[in-house]
Amino acid sequence: MLKIYQKIIIIGVSLLLARAGWKGLNALIYRSDSPASLQSGEGITMRKLNKSSEEWKKLLTPEQFRVMFQKGTERAFSGQYNNFWEEGIYLCAACETPLFRSEDKYDHGTGWPSFKEAFSEAHLEYHDERSPGTRRTEVRCAVCGAHLGHLFYDGPAPSGKHFCINSVAMKFLPAAEARERVPEVATLAAGCFWGVEYRLGQLNGVLETVVGYSGGKTVNPDYRQVLTGRTGHAEAVQVVFDPAVISYEQLVREFFALHDPTQLNRQGPDVGPNYRSAIFYHTLEQKQIAEKVRDELQASGRYSKKIVTEIAPFRSFYPAEQYHQKYYQKKPGPVCPNR
Q1: What is the torsion angle, in degrees rounded to the nearest 10, for the CA atoms of residue 100, residue 222, residue 225 and residue 318?
Q2: Within a 13 Å sphere around the CA of 156, how many CA atoms are in the beta-carbon half?
Q3: Is 183-330 in the same CATH topology as 53-178?
Q4: Could you tell me if 208 and 45 are in contact, meaning their C-beta atoms sit under 8 angstroms apart?
Q5: I want to staple 189 with a disulfide (CB 3.0 to 4.6 A). Which of 137, 141, 234, 312 is the partner?
Q6: 330 pLDDT band (50/70/90 cuts)?
C-alpha cells in the first residue's frame, strides 16, 4: 500500500498538471532555445515551387540567381529599391509571392531596402545562420525557397523588426495593380489558435494561415512567455484570403461564429489575456467592417452579454514555433474548444 506521504505527492502532482493545462504541457515538452521567429518557416506553408538550378538560371538574370539561389548579397546603396518610395507591394522576383508592403518600408540607413513587417508571415521562412563570431537570421521566400536577405531586431518600435532585403530579390507592383492581383490579409484572435487556424483554414477562399502572437509589447516572444499573459500578446491567426471568393466581412462573421466574443480574456477552459477575442485591423476599411459586424451582432439579441472583442490596429505579428503550425494536420484529434 502507498504510504500517506506518497499519496500526498501523487495528488499534488495531479493538481499541478491539471492547473498547467494541456497546452501548458506542450510548452514544456517542446522547449526551444531559439526565439519563435528564428524557427524554420517549414510547416507554416507548403513550398509550391521546386525548380532546379538550371530552370532558375533560365528565368532569372545572373545577378538575381547569384543572390537568390547562391545566397549572395548586392552591394550596399546599389539596389533599385533602396531609395524608392512609391506605393505598392513588393513581390518575390522569382515566383511573385507578395512579400512586403510599401507602407512598412523605411530608411534604416544600411544601404538595402528595409521593412518593419511582412506582407504575411505565411510567405516567409527563417533559417539560423551561424559562423564563428556571428549569428544571423536568413529570410527566404516560403513558396520558392529563394534567399531574400536577413532579419534583425534593431528596427523601429513596436515590432523591432528590420527586414534587410536585397532589391534584386524583389519585384515591385504599383498599388493600382496590386489591388487587382494581390490577396488580402486578416489577423484574428479567438482563443486557442490551434482550433481557430483549423476552422478558418477550412473556409473557401482562405489561401494560407499561420499562427502566432499579436497585440502585445514584447519583441519576438516565445510561447512560454506569451502563456504567462505578461507580454500583452494574444494567440492569433494570420489569414491570407482571396477577396473575390470570401470578403473580409464574411471572414469576420465566420470569426464571430466560431467562438464566444462575450468572454473576457478567455475561451472555454483557456483563461488569460493571451486567449482574448481580438481583431487586429490592417486598414481603416477593415476597422469599419469589423465595428459594423460587431454592432450588428450586439443589436441582434444573439448574445445576452456584451461583446468584448478588442478591435485594434495591427502593429506586429510574430509566428509561433513550428510545432504549433497546422497543429491538427500533424496531430489529428478533437479540435480545442473556443467556447
Answers
A1: 10
A2: 11
A3: no
A4: yes
A5: 234
A6: confident
Fold of 53-178: 2.170.150
Predicted local confidence at residue 144, as pLDDT: 95
Please, which pLDDT band fits residue 135 given cuts at 50, 70 and 90? confident
Distance CA 12, CA 94 (A): 57
Angle between helices 193-201 and 248-257 (to 10 degrees): 130
Q: Where are the domains of the chain?
A: 53-178, 183-330
Which is nearest to 81 in space by CA: 108, 41, 61?
108
pLDDT tens by residue, 184-231: 999 999 999 999 999 999 999 999 999 999 999 999 999 999 999 999
Grid cell for residue 67: 543572390
Beta bridge partners of residue 89, listed in sequence order: 101, 173
Alpha-carbon gap, residue 166 to 110, rounded angstroms: 11
- For the chain, the average pLDDT equals 87
- Say which of 92, 95, 141, 192 is annotated catalytic: 192
Domain 183-330 classification at class level: alpha beta
> Three cell numbers at 184?
488580402
70 backbone dihedrals φ, ψ, rounded to 5°: -125, 10
For cell 499573459, the residue is 229
pLDDT in tens, 253-311: 999 999 999 999 999 899 999 999 999 999 999 999 999 999 999 999 999 999 999 99
Give 98's strand partners: 91
> Catalytic: which of 92, 95, 144, 164?
164
Buried b (16+ CB within 10 A) or exposed e, 98-107: bbbbbebbee
Please give the backbone phi and psi of residue 75, each rounded to the nearest 5 degrees, phi first: -65, 140
Residues 6+ apart with CB under 8 A from 197: 209, 210, 211, 237, 326, 327
- Whether 46 has a pLDDT exceeding 70, the answer reads no
**Catalytic-residue membership of 192:** yes
Among 254, 253, 255, residue whose Cα is nearest residue 191: 255
Distance of CA 314 to the CA centre of its chain: 12
Where does the pLDDT of residue 131 fall: very low under 50, low under 70, confident under 90, or very high at 90 and above? confident
